[in-house]
Design brief:
By secondary structure, the protein is mostly helical. It has one helix at about 5-90. It has 1 helix and no strands. Helix content is about 95%, strand content about 0%.
Length: about 90
Amino acid sequence: MSDAVIVAVVTGACAVISQFVVSHFNNQKLFDELKRQSEITDTKLEGKLETLSQVTDTKITELTREVRAHNDFAKRMPVLEEKVTQLEHRVS
């Protein structure tokens, strides 16, 4: 082979190898950036989930209080009805 062909083959091989190396480092850099952004997004989502969880807990607590108040009223109502009936008998 002539010297020109050998130089062309070596130059081409070096270009291909250098392109693989550059591509590898760029892919690694991109992967690291995506991982960092994913961690930031996960942190934000965890914060939002914590806030939503606290809001849900507050709502459940309030609903529980309201249900207890309603149940107390429901327990007292028959007693009141009985007293009203007794008062009606006394009046008549």
